[in-house]
Specification:
The complex is a heterodimer of chains A (82) and B (146). By secondary structure, chain A is α+β, with helices and mostly antiparallel strands. Chain A has one domain: Beta-grasp domain (Ubiquitin-like (UB roll), Roll), CATH 3.10.20. Chain A contains 3 helices and 5 strands, in the order βαβααβββ. In chain A, a hairpin with a 2-residue loop joins strand 3 and strand 4. The mean pLDDT of chain A is 97. Chain B is an alpha+beta fold and 146 residues long. Chain B has a single domain, classed as Molybdopterin biosynthesis MoaE subunit (Aldehyde Oxidoreductase, domain 3), CATH 3.90.1170. In chain B, the strands form 2 sheets. A 4-stranded mixed β-sheet of chain B has the order 1-4-6-2, with helices on both faces. Chain B has a 4-stranded antiparallel β-sheet with strand order 5-3-7-8, with no helix packed on it. The longest helix of chain B is centred in the last third of the chain and has 18 residues. The chains are: A alpha+beta (82), B alpha+beta (146). Chains A and B meet through helix 1 of A and helix 2, helix 3 and strand 7 of B.
């Protein structure tokens, strides 16, 4: 069981800020492929992967990163702090 | 070092004074404050979303790196989230060092990393609607100089 979090326009497109996902996905990219199939909103949110960032247990990671042992995955657009 | 991620407004003068009063032996203090632009009077409000937990971790990591790279006596980061009006301070950075070179460089480093490595997202609300602020390529490029 993985907790998946969404922020900013991903959250708006998907319509929720978090969901629990049961998955055997080995990598972030595999998980994204599963999430995209969940709804039209998910598909729209993940349509342009170049504008997405991912954090695994609150550390930035890339889409090839393995999910073994990860409890929290967050997807969001490039950050605009400061 | 002090970090505060908060919804409440802060008083720039008070924070700068408190920071300066707590410093012993530094010859230079630099402060930077980011303020909500009014976009020519069009902006109704700015909403700032963040990732509680990761925000604090990411900024603490950036601050620790600044302390390791420059000769700093102290550093402060305050960053707000929630709904802000035009003209309100969004965030501030303060650095104190024996000499100004380290204080300026560390403040710029902190700002560059806060822009694109701290998990905040800004949304501008105007009469015409609401738009997420897009990250600038120049912000990402700014990290390469460090």
């Amino acid at each position: 069981m993985i907790e998946v979090l969404y922020f900013a326009w991903l959250r708006e497109r998907i319509g929720t800020n978090r969901e629990r996902v049961t998955t055997q996905a080995a990598t972030v990219a595999d998980l994204v492929a599963e999430l995209e199939a969940r709804s039209d909103g998910h598909a729209l949110a993940f349509a342009d992967k170049t504008s997405l960032r991912v954090a695994l247990d609150q550390e930035l990671a890339d889409f090839a990163a393995p999910l073994a042992g990860v409890r929290e995955v967050a997807f969001f657009p490039p950050m605009t702090g400061g | 070092m002090r970090l505060s991620v908060q919804e409440a407004a802060f008083d720039l003068g008070q924070e700068a004074n408190r920071f300066a009063n707590d410093i012993k032996g530094a010859g230079a203090i630099v402060t930077f404050t980011g303020v909500v632009r009014d976009n020519g009077g069009q902006l109704t409000a700015m909403e700032i979303e963040h990732y509680p937990g990761m925000t604090e971790k990411a900024i603490s990591g950036i601050m620790e790196e600044a302390v390791a790279r420059w000769d700093l006596a102290d550093a402060l980061v305050i960053h707000r989230y929630g709904v802000l009006a035009a003209g309100e301070p969004i965030m501030m950075v303060a650095t104190a060092a024996p000499h100004r070179g380290d204080a300026f460089a560390a403040a710029e480093f902190l700002m560059d990393y806060l822009k694109s490595r701290a998990p905040f997202w800004k949304k501008e609300i105007s009469a015409a609607g609401a738009d997420w602020v897009a990250a600038k390529e120049s912000d990402e490029a700014a990290l390469t100089r460090w």
